[in-house]
């Protein structure tokens, strides 16, 4: 009986989500998507709904943002994610936290995952073990002072990780499967095309919450991939499955 009730609740939640997407979220979609993207949504939604129920299981995917917190764009991104009920992962630089403590607090309070991106965005494999540990530990300490939560995950800059540090800092590295290179293109349309065309189940997408173009692209990506049946989760859900 418990399983049956749970199944009914899940079905009802799915129906409510579909109704919200076709109704209450229309204004949000109209504001963020291009005309071509918006026109494709009804067809995507109809095709998804026509599939057998067993084929409609959500495909999980994760958005991750490095180098924050940014004093303006991170809040703007959080607003858009909140409107869509989406959780993401933020890898913070220690040097960017001072003066942006409220942004860090908001990230945590709204249920996003916060990770460590070192203090100064350095290649830790070029440092002594003592220096590398300080880069990571000082950043984690600062985050915990603000959020009251331990920091369990680290994204080493440039993807360069020293496994010997795992014994010292007791953290799990998280890398990525799709690198948008948003810092070099700063073109929202190109970012959307790249991610939507390349995205696959269990992908971890690398972006940076430091640019207006990235914020706009990320929210359009969410709208389009949700319509294709993707569920956005924090990165730890993918690496720990």
Key features?
241 residues; TIM Barrel; six-stranded parallel beta sheet; 8 strands; 51% helix; globular
* Unreliable residue runs: 1-15, 18-28
The CATH topology assignment is TIM Barrel
Please, what is the average pLDDT? 85
Shape assignment: globular
Q: Please summarize the sheet with the most strands.
A: 6 strands, parallel
CATH superfamily: Glycoside hydrolase/deacetylase
Evaluate the radius of gyration: 19 Å
Report the CATH architecture. Alpha-Beta Barrel
User: What is the count of DSSP helices, taking H or I runs of 4+ residues?
Assistant: 11
Tell me the number of strands: 8
> What is the string of helix and strand elements?
HHHEHEHEHEHEEHHEHEH
Distance between the termini: 27 Å
Could you characterize the architecture of this molecule?
This protein has 241 residues and is α/β, with parallel strands linked by helices. It has one domain: Glycoside hydrolase/deacetylase (TIM Barrel). It contains eleven helices and eight strands. Strands 1, 2, 3, 6, 7 and 8 form a six-stranded parallel β-sheet that branches. A two-stranded parallel sheet has the order 4-5. Helix 4 runs parallel beside helix 10.
Question: Can I get a quick summary?
Answer:
The chain is an alpha/beta fold and 241 residues long. Helices cover 51% and strands 13% of the residues.
Task: Present the secondary structure layout.
Layout: H1 2-22, H2 26-32, H3 35-50, E1 59-68, H4 73-84, E2 89-92, H5 101-109, E3 113-116, H6 129-147, E4 153-154, H7 166-169, E5 172-173, E6 178-179, H8 182-185, H9 188-198, E7 204-208, H10 212-227, E8 230-232, H11 235-239
Helix pairs in contact: 4-10, 9-10
């Amino acid at each position: 009986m418990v399983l049956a009730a749970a199944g009914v609740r899940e079905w009802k939640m799915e129906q409510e989500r579909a109704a919200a997407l076709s109704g209450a979220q229309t204004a949000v979609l109209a504001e963020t998507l291009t005309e071509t993207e918006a026109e494709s949504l009804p067809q995507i939604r109809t095709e998804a709904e026509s599939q057998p129920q067993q084929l409609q299981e959500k495909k999980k995917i994760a958005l991750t943002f490095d180098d924050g917190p940014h004093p303006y764009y991170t809040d703007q991104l959080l607003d858009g994610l909140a409107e869509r009920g989406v959780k993401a992962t933020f890898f913070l630089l220690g040097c960017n936290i001072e003066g942006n403590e409220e942004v860090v607090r908001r990230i945590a309070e709204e249920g996003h995952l916060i990770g460590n991106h070192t203090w100064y965005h350095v290649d830790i494999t070029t440092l002594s073990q003592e220096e590398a540990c300080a880069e990571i530990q000082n950043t984690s300490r600062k985050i915990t002072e603000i959020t009251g939560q331990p920091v369990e995950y680290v994204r080493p800059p440039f993807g360069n990780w020293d496994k010997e540090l795992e014994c010292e800092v007791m953290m799990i590295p998280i890398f990525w499967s799709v690198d948008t290179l948003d810092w070099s293109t700063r073109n929202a349309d190109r970012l959307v095309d790249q991610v939507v065309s390349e995205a696959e189940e269990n992908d971890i997408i690398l972006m940076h919450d430091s640019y207006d173009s990235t914020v706009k692209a990320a929210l359009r990506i969410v709208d389009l991939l949700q319509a294709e049946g993707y569920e956005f989760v924090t990165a730890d859900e993918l690496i720990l499955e």
